[in-house]
Specification:
A: 208 residues, 66% helix, B: 292 residues, mainly alpha, 15 helices, elongated
Chain lengths: 208, 292
């Protein structure tokens, strides 16, 4: 057991909990679940696009993580969890072969069950960004599953190409091209919204 | 075509994933090409927009129930260690019995076996599934030596191995753990990792059953399996090395007597094999401990 003073208390706690959980301590693992569940759920939601299945796969991801804790080899534990969740979601999407067409109603509809964001802003910010969030999410969902996973891992989770390639079990070159096409598709999708975008983001409509 | 390539370049450029030459070349082009610049800016804005998506709140807690087990599949080294230990024990016991208890009449081994009542053998067969007899549990673990895998084990043995894995010490005393699943007090009181010592303690009670049902792994075994379908099904996947695992389960035809005419030699072979498995068990166990 390495002890390095440079680790923050939080990281030390996490290490401690992980090694306890490895020995079968469910309480220790549940402490880790509570630390990361918002993040893991968010990743699942961004890929799946609906709350119920995102919750299901987030739950599955934690069960899988507990069982496969031996395969965790250091590095960011959160990233490891997100990888598991993303893979479960991707497998599910491939199974379903579902590819919902994005419609204006889906993008602008008020009835969408958008989960509650973690940070609280002023009411105007929320109102504005909620519309935007819904639009971005709908444009992500219009991507095919492989592009979706790569885009979420890169632009939501901040993974580098190498980590993405490992996560979705493909080549870095494939990640590079998938990601560029996913971004272009989301851009085109958002550009189609025009006036619906808040003024700050109208620059997407490429005048100048 | 070129557009697609440019798209990849621009996207990777945003992520800092271009090598220095690619980057320099692209930056030169960007300086001269307003269309390319606009393309880059719209992509950058898109990435930034996606980045504004907030972290959501989980709709419920995803904590696991207390009863959740750490591992459903036993890591291979642990399984290998346990199976090897069981195999070593059975082989050593059988070998010693053959060497020390060879009848003065030079009666072939097969005849001894044939004396066992048939209904006992058949009952043991059922045990493969019901597993209420300790000897049968041990023996079922022996059979799949060449390629241990959970699917070939009885549920009871699988459970025993799972316990072994979830144990605090990570399988300390693989041998003792395995046998604790079977109601053999002798084994439980012997937490040694030396299979030979346990063998000594266990030699007495399970003798009859072990001799009767232990698959003799030396390759000279005569008639191909003639066992009942149920058993063949259980053993089929493992038949690669242990050529004739079913030979002892039915009254052996007279033809088997020829091969068994030198039980001492057979016993020596069993002992050597047993020692080999004991060594394998010990090595894999040590490897396991080191990994903890």
């Amino acid at each position: 057991m390495k002890t390095m003073s440079s680790f923050s208390t939080l990281e030390n706690d996490e290490r401690q909990l992980i090694s306890q959980a490895r020995r079968g301590d469910v309480d220790a693992f549940n402490a880790l679940v509570l630390m990361h569940q918002d993040h893991v759920f968010t990743a699942a939601y961004r890929v799946m696009g609906d709350q119920a299945s995102a919750a299901d796969y987030a739950q599955d991801a934690f069960i899988t993580a507990f069982r496969k804790l031996d395969t965790y080899r250091g590095g960011s534990f959160r990233a490891w969890l997100v990888r598991i969740a993303t893979n479960l979601c991707l497998d599910a999407l491939r199974r379903e072969k579902r590819r919902p067409a994005v419609s204006v109603e889906a993008i602008t509809g008020e009835s969408g069950d958008l989960p509650i964001a973690d940070d609280s802003d002023s009411p105007e910010d929320i109102a504005q960004s909620r519309e935007l969030q819904r639009a971005i999410q709908a444009c992500i969902e219009a991507l095919n599953p492989d592009q979706r996973a790569v885009l979420v891992l890169s632009d939501v989770e901040g993974f580098n190409y190498q980590d993405i390639a490992q996560t979705v079990n493909t080549q870095v070159g494939t990640v590079k091209s998938r990601l560029s096409r996913a971004r272009a598709a989301v851009r085109d999708c958002l550009q189609g919204l025009g006036e619906l975008l808040p003024p700050a983001y109208r620059l997407l409509n490429d005048e100048q | 075509m070129n557009d697609l390539n440019d798209l990849e370049l621009l996207s990777a450029y945003l992520d800092g994933e271009l090598n220095p030459e690619e980057r320099a070349s692209l930056e030169t082009r960007l300086a001269d090409d307003p269309t390319l610049r606009r393309e880059l800016n719209t992509l950058r804005a898109t990435v930034e927009l996606i980045g504004t998506l907030p972290t959501l709140r989980a709709p419920r807690n995803f904590t696991l129930p207390q009863s959740t087990r750490r591992s459903r599949t036993v890591p291979f080294p642990a399984l290998f260690s346990a199976v090897s230990a069981a195999a070593a024990l059975a082989l050593l016991v059988a070998g010693i019995l053959l060497v020390t208890q060879t009848p003065a009449t030079d009666q072939p081994m097969a005849v001894n076996i044939a004396q066992a009542p048939t209904d006992t053998a058949e009952r043991r067969l059922d045990v493969t599934f019901e597993a209420d007899a300790p000897q049968a549990q041990i023996l079922t673990t022996i059979v799949p030596q060449p390629a241990p895998s959970m699917t070939m084990l009885t549920p009871e043995v699988g459970a025993a191995m799972m316990d072994l894995m979830t144990d605090e010490d990570g399988g300390a005393g693989a041998d003792a753990e395995l046998f604790s699943a079977a109601p053999l007090e002798e084994a439980e009181s012997a937490p040694s990792d030396d299979a030979q010592r346990e063998m000594g303690e266990m030699a007495e009670p399970p003798v009859a059953g072990l001799v009767q049902a232990t698959p003799s792994p030396f390759p000279t075994q005569a008639p191909p399996p003639t066992a009942s379908p149920a058993l063949t099904q259980t053993l089929a996947p493992s038949a690669t090395v242990t050529r004739a695992p079913t030979m002892t389960l039915e009254p052996v035809p007279v033809t088997a007597a020829e091969e068994a005419s030198e039980p001492v030699n057979a016993g020596v072979i069993l002992l050597v094999l047993g020692l080999g498995f004991a060594l394998a068990a010990l090595m894999s166990y040590l490897w396991l401990r080191r990994g903890q």
